[in-house]
Amino acid sequence: MTKDVKLNAPKRRKIASLEKKKARAGWIFVLPFVIGFALIYLPIIFDSIKFTFYEMTNVPNYKGGGYILTPVGLENYYDALFVDPDFVQTLVAGLEKLIFDVPMILIFSLFMAVMLNQKMAGRAAFRAIFFIPVIISTGLMADISEQNMLMQTMDSAEGISDGTGSSAASEIVTAMDFQKLFANMAVGEELLNYVVSAINNIYDIVNRSGVQLLIFLAGLQSISPAIYESVKVDGATGWETFWKITFPMISPMILVNAVYTTIDSFTANSNIVMTFIDNVYNKQGRVLSSAMSWIYFLLVLAIIAVIAAVFSAFVFYQRKD
Question: Mean pLDDT, to the nearest integer, of 309-321?
Answer without folding.
Answer: 74
